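Anyone up for a design puzzle?
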């Protein structure tokens, strides 16, 4: 499937790679007797001089500072809590590949900057089969006016608890957020008219306006389907059922609900279909209306195996609102667009747009982590490629593609650029091209389909297969789009225009693989290319 490559730019000197401190896509050093402009070399001469492209650099995987997962396990649904010391604690359901009769104890991470996470281990264990909670489900952590901490969570018992139902709301308290005591007096099940087996994910918070606590819960009403229901309490022990605050009549369940305010808008996030959705209202009481496109990250097409970014809830830290969830672990095969339930911590920063819709961008704190500029070499591999300063332009006829290599991808890095696209075709980033594995797989901005996707397809295959893991995107709103890649080992997050993200596990981008850009059946100008690595 690999075509003969015509080299349009010669290699940067190794000394430049090791010593230069600037950034940008750099064409090769001017050859004697030329005017410095790129010139096409005969294919045979280029192939003899450069072989498959830029030379491989050394590669060493790094510890996960941005996207952690526990040793021997995975991060399931999260429960964010921000302490009085301005630290984010992320409680989560601990999952393994070998869960027993009891499963999903609650573990905890903490961080003050989203870069480097402290692992606190288990903070709440599951109960016995005779208890309501031999398995735990998501909930929330909060602090009352007296300083006592409360953890409301889901108890799950497949035996049905003597006819009461499989799921219930449970409660634990703590004075230090490390040692929690279960409160057997606060256990309640679904009300009449609701499924006894689908009653989970309590979100509890104080509402100053009403002078009471709200508890939002994912429930299933017998006629409405999945809803977010509301309870109120003045003492966190006795709860009054109010009814649904959101009932779209479109999903079986609306898991892990979270209510928050940005500016004068209220937002409700909820999860089902392997994705996190959101709806908007002018009031915390609703009505909540989902925008036309209310999925901010990717969605898999394989039923039950498309958990790209799931069960996300918000946390406000240092004036920034973050959407905290998890990136599913790889499916039966890597780079397939299949993601199973539970994986690694994944945190995006939320952006509110002028029309009230939400978008995603990389957390601002990453700027203090990725501080060192890395020179980006560039060499044309195939097709019409022009390289000038920190810009790469590619043009390809219908059915053909152009490709430029930017060298070995660092194990952890950010890459930013502005891309101007033709109205049709497919462009984006590619990974591969090393001596170990010369094939290139494409992270594709697909103008023809109006989405961004990655599932391990080689460039030549993009016209022949449908996306398996994608996020929708309207490329027509602007001629030029700002892209930011954040990479840590196989985890690759693409942000575009502070609007959308596509989170992926791209094994083919690791172990010495190169990164490059391509255009298929169209053209693209990648400008202002810059790469940063940790200082």
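Challenge accepted. My sequence:
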């Amino acid at each position: 499937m690999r075509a003969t490559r015509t080299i349009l730019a010669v290699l940067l000197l190794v000394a430049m790679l090791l010593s230069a401190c600037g950034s940008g896509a750099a064409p090769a050093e001017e050859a004697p007797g030329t005017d410095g402009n790129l010139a096409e070399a005969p294919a045979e001469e280029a192939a003899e001089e450069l072989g498959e492209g830029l030379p491989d650099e050394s590669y060493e995987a790094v510890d996960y500072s941005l996207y952690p997962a526990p040793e021997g396990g995975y991060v399931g649904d999260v429960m964010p809590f921000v302490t009085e010391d301005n630290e984010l604690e992320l409680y989560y359901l601990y999952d393994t590949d070998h869960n027993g009769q009891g499963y999903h104890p609650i573990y905890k991470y903490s961080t003050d900057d989203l870069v480097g996470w402290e692992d606190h281990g288990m903070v709440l264990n599951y109960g016995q089969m005779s208890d309501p909670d031999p398995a735990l489900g998501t909930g929330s952590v909060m602090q009352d006016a007296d300083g006592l901490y409360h953890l409301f969570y889901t108890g799950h018992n497949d035996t049905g608890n003597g006819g009461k139902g499989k799921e219930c709301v449970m409660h634990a308290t703590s004075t230090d957020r490390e040692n929690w005591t279960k409160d057997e007096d606060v256990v309640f099940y679904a009300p009449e008219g609701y499924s006894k087996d689908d009653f989970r994910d309590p979100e509890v918070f104080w509402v100053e306006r009403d002078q009471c606590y709200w508890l939002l819960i994912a429930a299933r009403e017998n006629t409405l389907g999945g809803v977010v229901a509301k309870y109120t309490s003045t003492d966190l022990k006795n709860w009054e059922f109010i009814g649904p605050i959101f009932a779209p009549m479109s999903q079986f369940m609306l898991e892990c609900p979270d209510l928050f305010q940005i500016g004068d808008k209220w937002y409700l996030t909820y999860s089902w279909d392997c994705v996190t959705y959101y709806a908007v209202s002018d009031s915390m009481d609703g009505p909540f209306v989902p925008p036309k496109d209310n999925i901010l990250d990717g969605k898999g097409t394989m039923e039950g195996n498309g958990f790209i970014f799931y069960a996300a809830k918000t946390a406000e830290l240092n004036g920034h609102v973050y959407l905290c969830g998890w990136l599913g672990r790889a499916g039966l095969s890597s780079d397939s667009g299949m993601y199973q339930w539970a994986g690694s911590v994944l945190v995006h920063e939320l952006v509110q747009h002028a029309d009230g819709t939400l978008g995603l961008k990389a957390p601002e704190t990453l700027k203090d982590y990725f501080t060192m500029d890395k020179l980006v070499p560039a060499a044309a591999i195939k097709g019409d490629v022009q390289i000038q300063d920190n810009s790469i332009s590619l043009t390809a006829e219908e059915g053909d593609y152009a490709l430029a290599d930017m060298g070995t991808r660092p194990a952890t890095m950010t890459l930013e650029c502005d891309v101007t696209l033709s109205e049709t075709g497919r462009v984006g980033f590619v990974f591969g091209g090393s001596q170990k594995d010369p094939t290139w797989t494409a992270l594709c901005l697909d103008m023809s389909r109006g989405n961004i996707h990655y599932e391990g397809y080689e460039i030549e295959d993009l016209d022949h297969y449908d996306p398996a893991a994608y996020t929708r995107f309207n490329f027509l709103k602007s001629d030029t789009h700002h892209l930011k890649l954040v990479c840590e080992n196989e985890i690759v997050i693409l942000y575009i225009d502070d609007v959308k993200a596509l989170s992926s596990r791209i094994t083919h981008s690791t172990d010495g693989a190169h990164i490059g850009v391509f255009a298929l059946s169209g053209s693209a100008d990648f400008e202002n290319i810059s790469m940063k690595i940790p200082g």
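A detail worth pointing out: The mean pLDDT is 91.
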